[in-house]
Amino acid sequence: MKHAFETREIPLKLLTLHPDNVRAGSGAGYGEDQIAPLAANIAECGLLQPLLVAPVKTDGGPDVWGVLAGGRRLAALNMLAADKSVKGYTGSMMVPCRIVPETQAAQVTLSYSENALQLPMDALDRYEAFAAMRAKDGADVATIARRFAITERAVKEALRLGNIHPDLRQAHRNGGLSLEALKAFDAHPDPVVQMEAYEALSEHGVSRVQDWSVRNYFSGRYVRVGDALGQVVLEGYKAAGGQIIADLIEEDSVLSDRALVDKVLADCLSDVADARREALGLAWSDYLLKPDWELTHKYGRVYPEPVELEGDAKAQADKITDRILEIEDLYDQHDDDDDAQQALHDEYIALSDQLNDMTTGYSVINAGLGGVLAIWSSREISFYDGMVRPEDMPDRSPSQGASDTGADGAQQSEDTAVQDKWSEKLKADMAHIRTRSIGLALAQTPQLARDYADYALIRSILKPYSSYDIGTTLRGEAGSSRMAEAEGCLKAIEDTYLALSEQLALGWLDLTGADGFAAFRALSEQERAALVAYAVAQTLKPTLSSKAPDAVRGIVEAEALPNIRDVWTPDEGYFGRLTKPALLSILKTDIGMAAQAETYEKSKKSEIVDYMHALFAAPFATLSAEQRARVDTWAPKAMQTAIAAGDAHDGTRVASDPDTAEQQDAVEG
């Protein structure tokens, strides 16, 4: 039965939400973020749809009209009426309404019908609507954004779908391509390139065309202007005449010549590495376009040593030191002034860096050995100073043994044991972090990972220690996985794992049977090696270092990650879980900062945690060479890899003593 309701204009101040409105029970109603876009649209275009209302009796007051359908429109009108800057919207304004007679039954049904039976617009509908507004209404991007209270970027992103190849849009409408996969194709603004990507990805079946596979396809071949890499190479790329494929959103335009991008990046890395080499007085500089653990873990390293200052230089250094100490006192006096504390912090960092540059430097011997490696690490340029090439490293004899100044070789005292008294939960958590750190290195060392995997799998077949009734004697399972709420250094580790996983060739996993096996066998050697390395990394079981680790696991750990500190740095998340005596013991016994430990004996644990976090995050310039070496290399005994823990087959040391070592002792292997 059709209802023809009377249309009437009613003053806004006489309208309220009807008790039978199906949204009337939803707490405080709509949030401002839900109302504001509609209010902006009504201010631009007027109220396009009347409210559905019915009379409501009140006790003693004037009769009002209850809104059965259109509660958000009513809230938007009230928002406009309350805004004095918007003209024409007041409590007395007349609002078009459709009247439901008092005799009409099923008012709740009417309210639900209008609220529930509307279909939202999908992404392609939005594109077509915005495109029509531009073509037929003459509305530009800014006007569309203002009318619907959305950002201009949101409008541009909707319009960008129109630049996706028509065949791909049709595939989505036919149900053969998900919306997320469709949107992933706008990573490249050229429809021809989009179709090439689709055809390449769907070669082994349409099921391989997923959003992640599309993103991986483009990220490996093209660079966007707005990417970190794009920003670094953009000017050089333009100067070299590189082609830029324009996008509606400028930062999403594409640098299409990947070979030229790599050449410009190589030139940039070479220039900055050489400039840093010259500033540090080192012998050589080099660069890598991406991290290569298998290569860099073979390098040694030398470190700056204290420089004796005289005359004006010494006076200036003393002046800077006095100001640094003054800042430390002033910082606590501005607990309620964040701006003042930030200014003091910035000055402290700048002065500390200046003092460090003045008071430390490489010895003549070390400067002749060391160099600078500039490595592009996906988001920024990382510098590795004092690196020593494998061919330049002095020979070591096994008799040299471990240093007595490192984290494990620090002179023992009764206080030392307290820092090793971990709760079972802390042991489990630190074992997880240690294993994920080693796994991250192993995931980027394919050959070592393959050797380890082949050994483990073949040994389990030839000399089984257990059996599984699963139709095959070969079995693998994850030994560790991503924590849902990783924080601090672990979050950085897990984010890198995620970045690695996004680069893997995983399309064959979506296929089954012979098709899946054929797709896997078609992978390149490099793709398969990366998969093996990543998979083997996931099989590592969380363990802490022990006095007698498994020999094979120990060798793998030591080769993959000789120094746990290359991946993990002790931070507030770790220090906050230790006792106050343990923190003071680390500071006094392991780091050799007895005076500071004594100073903090009466301080709150939280203050010591903050100090330790800052010390390890950016070692203070006021540290002695020995203290700095200890801070740079220290890790809890249980976190160290086999070699660092003193169980290495070749006797490699944790750190050298720069005050007494000869040339070969100055190099960290």
Automatic annotation (TrEMBL):
Question: Start and end of every ParB-like N-terminal domain?
Answer: 8-116
| Residue spans of biased composition, Acidic residues class | 659-669
Q: Which domain of life is it from?
A: Bacteria
Annotated segments matching region Disordered: 388-419, 645-669
Q: Which residues form a coiled coil?
A: none
Renumbered to this chain, the signal peptide range is none
List, alphabetically, the Pfam families matched: ParB_N (PF02195)
Any one GO cellular component localisation term in the record: chromosome
State what protein this is by name: ParB-like nuclease domain protein
Q: What CDD domains does this protein map onto?
A: ParB_N_like
Q: Name one GO biological process term.
A: chromosome segregation
InterPro entries documented for this protein:
Chromosome_partition/occlusion, ParB/Sulfiredoxin_sf, ParB_N
